[in-house]
Structure formats: structure tokens, C-alpha cells
Amino acid sequence: MDYKIKDFFKEISVISKIEGLRFQDISIDDIPGSANITKQNKEFQISFKGIFKYPADGKLDINLSGEKYRVSSGTLKQTRFWSEIFDNVKGELTFDIKSMKRGDLKRNTSFRMFFFDTSKRKNLFHFKLESPKYDEIIPWAFDCVRITLDEKRYDIIQHQTTDQSYIIIENLDQVSYRDFQRDSYAIQKGIGYLVGYMPGGEHYIFSGLNFEYYRLARESLKSIYYPVTRNPYSFEFSNDYKNTADSYKEILMVIPSTVISKFVQQIRDNEEFSVAIIFLMEVLHLKSVVSMPGAFSVVLESLADIITNPSKIKTNLITDKNLATEIIEELHTVIDKYSTTLDDESVLKLKRRLSALNSPITPRRLTNAMKLREPFDQLGIILSSADEAAIEYRNYLLHGNILMNTDKPRNSEEIDIHMMYISGKLYTLLSKLLLKNCGFQGYVINHAKFFDSKEDPKEIYFFEKV
Fold it and tell me: What domain range is 132 assigned to?
């Protein structure tokens, strides 16, 4: 079978031309004078000599090598300190360029967005995300993921040339320019979380040879974790676990495109969910041992509010009234059995609590402990005792115990390892929630296992079933 391969030569040629600008002479419409433009790494500037007239909209129309472009900059507007006495004074000025465009993309419906890939990772999607099969219609790419948002298909590609790697987002079905921008931002965050790298910073959007260059305030984010792999040999196991990788070889799976699509769709449609994911990525990028447990706890609480369906909260734990009465009576008997070892007041208060044992649960009055566990219950995710303990560490943080110290003395190294263990545990729990909520039924990486105590191990598995 002859494969039709995706071709990015024309777009990359334009990018190379712009990126290679070095003091290139330009002319500015309606503003006589001497000007040049330079693009070197992240520095993109126009230098001007003459009498400059500030445009009202902060945009300049320039002529570069016989072609028209429009550039914008936050420094192209007069400040409130400007005086008219400077209007006809010659000077030398330099402006930072925020955006540059050729043509009008708003009239088009097919787009390609190019990010500079700074992940330093080859085959970014392999063993993590499902790749599309070649259908003899849509051109193929080796490192590619295909998702669907509101019935519109998108390809996300890692494309490498001899000297540069790109992350490219391409729509396969017609969309408006506005929708493409909105969808692409959701794709950035969604794919970023799932593979541990979110592209950012400078990017180009093309439609044919018309394009827009733009520089985002948020640079690319690189995570120390990612939730899923199909390759158990991605990790180095000690001699004690030399057979572990082989045991997982046949059961691990990539994240299906349907799950990826639903995950990105939720990011696009729910602003609170979107903010939670970007917050999670920013903290993971910082790799702060001290910050991660607290930040993950905050995200867990946010997701509990987003994922929990109030109508599914079980308000009556025991629906059979006769059974409820029988259980409470037996518990009274148990307390009476040990009453000789308790004082009278304790016995009385324990029995009073029993009377409310099966009282209806009001969704609006869930305790924090119940609220954090509710989404796991609704999704059918069973929490181990180690999971429960990790969730409880939220209370340490709320009461100012940032290092999560207990009565057991620890040195600095032991504190760091313990915090990495809790971070890994909470990240794994977050991954289970996020993926199971989108229909995933596979194994996630149990990052806590890699930081588990050898003297007092709490984790059994390197990969856990969702």
C-alpha cells in the first residue's frame, strides 16, 4: 500500500523565513523613515529611525520583500505620558512584536497550528495514545493522534525535520477560525496532560500560505509524570522486581482516541475543569517537592465538585428499615459488651450516635472527607487504605503542616521521599478520576510505588487497574 504522507514543507519554509529574519529592511505604510525587522530566538523586533506616528489600533502594515504583513505590539500605542511636542521629532525606536500576520484567516475553514517542540522527546505519543489507522484518504503521519470535538476531527502530529521538531494541530473537517483557536487550546492542555508535555509560547497558524504568528504568555510545560503507558519497560526496575515488566506486557494499553476526545471535550466545554488541568500542569512543570502535595489536594477537591453528580449521591445507606434496625440493635449489644471498659458518659454518647447511623445524607451537607471520596464511589474506583491515607493528608496541609510531619521523626531526605510518595499517590488518584470519568478501562501508572518505603511498603503494584 502506498501511503499519502502529510506534507508540511510549505508552512515550514515560511516559518524558516520568518525565523531567519536578521535586520531585514522593511517599509511601513504611511510612516516614512528607515526601518528593519529582526527575529532571533524569542526576540522579535522592529527598529525605526525617523518621525514615528503611533497607530491608534497598535498595529502596523509593513512591506517585507514585496509582501504585505500586519504586525502588532503592546508598545505601539502612545502612553498617557506622551506629549504633542514629540510628534514631529526624529528618533530611534524599537518595538517588540507580539503578532504578525499575512492575509485574513477569519475567512477560511482549514488550518494548521505549528508549535516549536521543546520536549526533547522522540515519539511523544507512542505507547501512550492511540494512533489512527491509515484509511487511504487522509494523509498519514508517523507520530499522530486523531480526536473528535463536536463531530469535527483533528490530527495532532509530532513532526521532525533535520534541525527542528514541531507539534502540529490540524483540523480535518471545516471549522471557523474562532472555533479552531478554542479547540486547539483545549487540545494543547488535554494532550499535554496525557503525554506529560504541553506546547506553548510562540506558534504559527496557517491556512494555505496565509498565516498568523503569535506569542503566548504561557511557555511550554513539561511534566515529571504522565498517567498511562503501554510499555512496561519504560521504567527501570530493581533486581527484586526484574520479572515485573514481563508480567504487565500483555495487559497494558494506550488511551483510546474516544477517551482522549472526551477528555479534551470536557476541557473545552468546562472552564473550571480547564483551569484545574492547567494548574496541575503548571505545578508538575515546577517539579516542586513541597508544592505538589498541596496543589494536587486542591485539584482533587476541584475535580470532586466537577465530577460528582448530586443526583447519584446515595442518601440512604441502608434502604431496608428492618435491616437498619437490626444492625443498630446489634451495635448496641456490642457497646454493652465493652461497657465495663468505658465510662458511662462515653457509652451514652456512642449509643446516641447509633441512632443517627442511617439518617439520610444531604448532598449539600457532605463532610469534606465524604465529598473527596464521592466521585471515586460514583465511578466505581475502589480506594485502598494507602489511597485513603493520601487523601487524608489534605488535613495536614490545611493546618499548616506543609512537610506532613507525624510523630515519627524524619530527616530531610526521608521527608522529601515521603512527600514524593504522597505526590505520586495523589497524582495516580487524579489520573484514575480523570480517565475513568472519560470511559477509560485500563491500567494507570502507580507513581507512588517508585517512592514507596522499602522498610514499610504500602504499595503492591506498579500499575493499577481503573
Answer: 105-222
The string of pLDDT tens digits covering residues 414-455 is 788 888 999 999 999 999 999 999 999 999 999 999 988 887
Question: Do residues 293 and 377 both lie within one domain?
Answer: yes
Is 154 within 8 Å of 265 (Cβ atoms)? no
How many residues comprise the chain?
466
Spatial neighbors of 250 by CB under 8 A, at least 6 apart, are none
Nearest CA to 29 among 68, 58, 77? Answer: 68
State whether 27 and 64 are in the same domain: yes
Q: How many domains does the chain have?
A: 4
Residues 6+ apart with CB under 8 A from 137: none
Reported pTM: 0.88
What are the respective helix, strand and coil percentages of the chain, to the nearest 5?
40, 20, 40
* Helix (H/G/I), strand (E/B), else coil: 101: strand
Residue 359 covered by a domain: no
* 361 lies in some domain: no
96 and 110 share a domain? no
Give ∠ CA 49-52-56 in degrees, rounded to 5. Answer: 145
Neighbours of 101 (CB within 10 A): 18
